[in-house]
Amino acid sequence: MFSASRHAINTRVPELAITIDSVEKSFPRALHGWRALLQPLATPSVQALRGISLEVKAGEAVALLGANGAGKSTLLRILATLLLPSRGTARVAGFDAAKEPAAVRRQLGYHAGTDLGFYARLTGAENLRFFGRLNHLSESFLRSRIPALARQFELTASLDNQVRTLSSGTIQRLSLLRAILHEPKVLLLDEPTRSLDALAAAEFRRFLKKEVLQRHGTSLLFASHTLPEIELLADRVAILKEGTIAALDTPMGLKARTGATSLEAAFALLTGHGTASLEEPVSP
After folding, report:
1. Among 2, 140, 196, 246, fewest CB within 10 Å belongs to which?
2. Residue 169 lies in a domain
3. Maximum Cα–Cα distance across the chain
4. Displacement of CA 51 from its chain's centroid (Å)
5. Is the CB of residue 191 less than 8 Å from the CB of residue 224?
6. Would 138 be classed as within a structural domain?
7. Prediction pTM value
8. Residue 4 maps to a domain
9. Which residues neighbour 102 within 8 Å (Cβ) at sequence distance 6 or greater?
């Protein structure tokens, strides 16, 4: 399926697709007014992550669940090489995210609901071909892969339109398509269905579970506030609280250890937060 032009991408994933070892991340306190000019010089003093350790096996799906500001997006951005950890190491497909960022990017697909990054005056198809070529995908592969995924995401009619003319939900689906265009072995998703309507979200979950996880054995680490989505997709759930992992188990295991009858109740018992804190996700 892949052209020889993709030889730079190592599709072999070690037994552990993701290894996070004692990762910490601190940010400077937000400054306002003229003091904002000093922001680049400020000392990092606000801890978003406090010694996170986590492993994701090859072919496993792990969900990150936590209240606003728990550190979910920060952790995913470190793995996606968009942020450097203050301490600790993060490895994707055997490569160090801080020391080998180019190798890491070749192994993963990344989608964040608030960071779409398309060229507005290019069409959807032109954007996808551009990002595909950045991933060393051949033109022949893209000619078959893009239309096939577009049908799956109901995007065929939108591919020839400039991105600036598309609705936010359509752009969201286009971004999801881009994340899996190169059939990555490791997939990072941050609120993947947040801008999709109910039918589109259900179809994407079905596609993700059947085609991406089961058929291709992709390893998945994703953040979500949608509990049914987590129970459908996740083998294990990491519950984050104030930058630490409060619990890590299967959905059934979390319910069993807390005596709860639902994942919602287990989350509340383990964190002391009601599920209202999950309703409006805000990046930490």
Report:
1. 140
2. yes
3. 55
4. 20
5. yes
6. yes
7. 0.83
8. no
9. none
Burial class (CB in 10 A: 0-12, 13-18, 19+), 34: exposed
pLDDT of 150-209, one tens digit each? 988 889 999 999 999 998 778 888 988 899 899 899 999 998 888 778 887 888 888 888
Separation of alpha carbons 210 and 275, rounded Å: 28
What is the domain count for the chain?
Answer: 1
Quick one: average pLDDT of 75-85?
96
Question: Looking at residue 279, what is its pLDDT?
Answer: 53
Closest CA to 233 of 247, 212, 254, 255: 212
Query: Domain range spanning residue 23?
Result: 11-30+44-278
Question: What is the CATH classification number for the domain harbouring 218?
Answer: 3.40.50.300
Q: Are strands 87-92 and 61-66 parallel, antiparallel or unpaired?
A: unpaired
